[in-house]
Amino acid sequence: MRIYFCSDIHASRKCWKKFLNSWKFYEADTIIVGGDITGKFVVPIVETRPGDYTATFMGVQRKVNSPKALEALKVMIADSGQYDFITTPDEYRTYQGDQAKIDTLFRRLVVERAQEWMAEADMKLRGTGVRCFVSGANDDFFEIDDVIASSEVIEDPNGKVIELEGGFELLGMGYGNPTPWACPRDIPEDALAGRIDAAAKGVHDLSRAIFSLHVPPLGSGLDIAPKLDDYLRPRVGSDGLEMIPVGSTATRDAIIKYKPIIGLHGHIHESKGIKQLEGVTIANPGSEYGEGILDGLLVDVDPHKGLQRVELVVG
Fold first, then answer.
1. Which residues partner with 241 through β-bridges?
2. 198: exposed, middle or buried (Cβ count in 10 Å: 0-12, 13-18, 19+)
3. CA quadruple 208, 211, 216, 222: dihedral sign
4. Which of 118, 129, 172, 274 is the most exposed place for a label (fewest CB within 10 A)?
5. pTM of this prediction?
6. Which 3 state secondary structure label does DSSP give 206?
């Protein structure tokens, strides 16, 4: 069985489309997004007068004045993992200073794109026989779980154990340890450990278990991220950015305790790699979603020979 695994695509239209085609390109039986499927920013596109639009995107003011140019701008925004919002100057002013209204708009746009993605997955994967797994992770609102559940073809392994081909089992966990941003699924380490332990009780054969735990193990080398100051800005020292391990003790303890055949992780975009943790292969494909680059892992497992291949790929 060949698995294609990626994570942290954060609403990038281009990355999602690549993911849905990954099974063909890599000849995979199973494809997985290990969480964080939603984006972080809204880009207002203001119609200053009929047919003329302006938006500030990636720090650049962009003006378009044709339907074709407007659509190209919207695609550019979506490919980067952001959400466009077409509005008027009067409507735009009603959002200024009204955080509750902004939050409501953001949640609506997040859910709408996720719904579009599920419909696209159903259309492209229906009848192919490919197993597709997608779950929300620490950055994703809980409403996303219901959207994923609406899909005909996508399965959500979050907090579950799902049987795969050849007697292998997939355990998923999208919750993570606390971050400075207080994300929706950030929970204390002991609570995360409890959730992993509860799910692990459903595993029949740990030697064939594949653990998709969103946050990498603490100190594993897959969890190195910039150290932040009190204003959540990366700290810069004499040698450049200060980097520190920010992974999870609960994930680390679970890998050591249960010794799955492999640990698949995400969360830390800067720390792609394949490592060993007390004899267990663990891997993080990293993420470059903002550039529309899909970082992934190929994992080959055999019912008789076990783990045969783990390889970083970029598409």
1. 236
2. exposed
3. positive
4. 129
5. 0.97
6. helix
Residue 264 bridge partners (DSSP): 212, 283
Q: What residue ranges define each of the domains in the chain, with the CATH number in brackets?
A: 2-40+105-314 (3.60.21.10), 42-102 (3.30.420)
pLDDT of residue 231: 82
Element at 84 (helix H, strand E): strand 83-87
Q: How many CA atoms lie within 13 A of 53 on its CB side?
A: 23
Q: Are 137 and 145 in contact (CB under 8 A)?
A: no
Is residue 10 over pLDDT 90? yes
Give the DSSP letter of residue 165. G
Q: For residues 222-246, give the mean pLDDT.
A: 89
Q: Which two tokens stand for residue 306?
A: 């076990």
Residue 125 has which token pair?
């994967």
Residue type at 97?
G
- Answer for the pair 227, 235: CB distance below 8 angstroms, yes or no: yes
